[in-house]
User: Fold this.
Amino acid sequence: MFMFGKGKLAEPIIRRLFLLSFWGIWLALPFLMLDDDDVKHREMFIKILPASLTNVLLFFIVGEWLGPKMLQRQRVKTYLFTVLGLALLFIVVQGFMKNWLLFPDHKGPLFHMFRGMVQVFFAATLGLGYALVRHTLGEEKNRQEEQQERLKSELSFLRSQISPHFIFNILNSIVYLIRSKSAKAEPVTLQLSALMRYMLYESTDKQIPLEKEIGYLKNYVELQKIRFEEDVEIRLQEDGVATDQVIEPMLLIPFVENAFKHGVGLVASPVIDIALNITSKSLLFVVRNKITLEAAADKDDNSGIGLQNVRRRLELLYPKAHQLDIQEKDGWFVASLNIAFQ
Assistant:
């Protein structure tokens, strides 16, 4: 079973039906243009119809069979000379066929060769042009498919670069909570389980509901609060409600990861400030963390990889639908992302 207009099976069938319809109209055109009382020419066209059908054969040889084979191998010159040779061969064959079909015609095959030359070259040129256009479109389609595959591979690689350090830190925190027999051990384990389930399964989707991404973000923040307790002031403010908006998964978390990576430790009285402003058409996401000169100087070679990662993903996925602003000002590192929903 197949459906027209869908899949690779329907495309060649529709194309060939169109070509057969075109040549059917082309062959019927001389009969349609004749007057009803023009019996002589009507009979002649009927007699030479087998010879005229060879033009259709020539077109399919040049356009459907020979063209794809030679153009795919980049043998353009050979293809052009072969088409020319075929055209000359068909002119000769048609000349003898028409002379024979007219029992025999006193004008001779040479006369019919010249008469049929225009139609043969028309069929050959049409087949040649058809093959070239089809080859060009096929090459462009293949190029776009290859580019899409490269983008998918790049996006997959970028997603896989999400830092695993947070997971290990939370596991250490869970071990501490279990040893101290804290009541928080079980809910924290469940939160971490939900977090990892999201990372492993739902984040593989092309796009997910914004509500799920925000839920993942909140879960992450809650676990960080348990990890740092009172040592870090963590604020999260949400304005607006996520409804049917969709977003690329794991897109917001690198900003928060970066804030915790460089906004704690050497920073006195560290603060992580996260703000979400949601409308039906856009999302404004701002992450702020305190910085010091010592913290900036202490950054390792991997600093900024998460932000470079997300910047590239935004370029690929939201080329004209986002605005990213990252700056350091008055002792704060501020990352502001505005996304327009499609």
Q: What stands out?
A: Residues 32 and 96 are 26 Å apart (CA to CA). The chain has two domains: 48-157, 161-340. The longest strand covers residues 282-290. Strands lie at 208-209, 233-239, 246-247, 271-278, 282-290, 322-329, 332-340.
